[in-house]
């Protein structure tokens, strides 16, 4: 079971790095999702993470394959990114994850070479105003029909971590639940404990 902390583009990467250092012992992957930044700015932000002590294997860059390859870290591909199979063919050493929003899309991306998948949004969230959440039943359907680990995203709190794990998720992705919390370290610890104390057992598909 893994915890993914995704930057939300609303604060500086210096601030994100400061939080990352605090929560490193509780978080498995740090995603830099900064659509507004240039390649150089994103590269420097990732270097800042590494300088604060985050291991490169825990860092994942959203969309920018060039930055990920330059740093030797993972890449997370979205709907507007290059096709997974082309990235995997051209850069066979890179670890690829991808966002999905339906079973068909999840199957396609899993078969194309994604190491793991994000699926959401699961619950109502302020980052997706006006859009109905997909819910745990759809999450479960995806988890049951793809061969790769599925990470639940969207409105995830320490209180509902157990529910998404019960429906097959191999982990959770969090943004505001940690980044906007008045005590990010305490919040990350709550997510960590929610996973650690989950009584539903262990899934074979893990990240």
From TrEMBL:
Limits of the Thiamine phosphate synthase/TenI domain: 15-178
Pfam families, per database record: TMP-TENI
Chain coiled-coil ranges: none
Biological or metabolic pathway of the protein: Cofactor biosynthesis; thiamine diphosphate biosynthesis
Alphabetically ordered keywords of this record: Thiamine biosynthesis
InterPro entries: Aldolase_TIM, ThiamineP_synth_sf, ThiamineP_synth_TenI
CDD domains: TMP_TenI (cd00564)
PANTHER family registered for this protein in UniProt: THIAMINE-PHOSPHATE PYROPHOSPHORYLASE, THIAZOLE TAUTOMERASE
Protein name as catalogued: Thiamine phosphate synthase
